[in-house]
Amino acid sequence: MRILIITGGRIDEDFALSLLEKEKFEHMIVVDGALAFWDKVEKNPDTTCHFDHLVGDFDTISPEILKNYLDREDIEVHRFNPEKDYTDTDIALKLAIHLTKSETGKADAKSEIWLLGATGTRADHMLANMQLLAQTRAAGVDGVIVDKNNKIRLLEGSYTLKREAQFGDFVSLIPVTQALKGVTLRGFKYLLDGHTTYWGESLCVSNELEAEEGYISIEEGLAFLIESRD
């Protein structure tokens, strides 16, 4: 199952429309202020996309736009008090993880949850959204944050990056835990073999893929894997 969360950070409209055209999702969740972007999408006569869940305290969306979506039969509305413990994006992610679960209560290991609009001008929200990927990892779901210039994953263990599917020219590993032990990089411009790097170091920033496939392995620790383009 693939789920897209559209939340209220910075959204490049051309990139977002291209993403909606190329990628297919079984569920789409729109979060609070992102409804303003979606309202433009719905008014496009060529659009074939529809979302099925609306989440938020709705303190950042205009009442004029909101009223057009609250009573629609094809949209399930999840409304919360503005004075709450978790951000709207966090609540939407918890909903998405719930949607991936089967009758056994476990998420399908092939499930993906993408977040669009999770980056932007608010550094506090952006960093909080990046750490939310720990929830997808704990649930056994592949979590991805994407914007016009970046694709972000939380990596543990190994990952193979294929040139044909590469998002951007630059590949970075940013330590999340105190140490990344046994880091091996193959197929990249800058190689490592069982190296240890630490939180606060920039050793693995701005690498480049040279082979058709790049292999990344971490024996112990967590890192953000970021594919970037200018």
Automatic annotation (TrEMBL):
EC number(s) given by UniProt: 2.7.6.2
Thiamin pyrophosphokinase thiamin-binding domain location is 157-222
User: Gene3D superfamilies in the record, alphabetically?
Assistant: Thiamin pyrophosphokinase, catalytic domain
- Can the keyword Transcription regulation be found in this entry's annotation? no
Task: Report the SUPFAM superfamilies cross-referenced here.
Answer: Thiamin pyrophosphokinase, catalytic domain, Thiamin pyrophosphokinase, substrate-binding domain
Q: Could you name the domain of life of the organism this protein comes from?
A: Bacteria
Which protein, by its recorded name, is this?
A: Thiamine diphosphokinase
Originating organism: Coprococcus catus
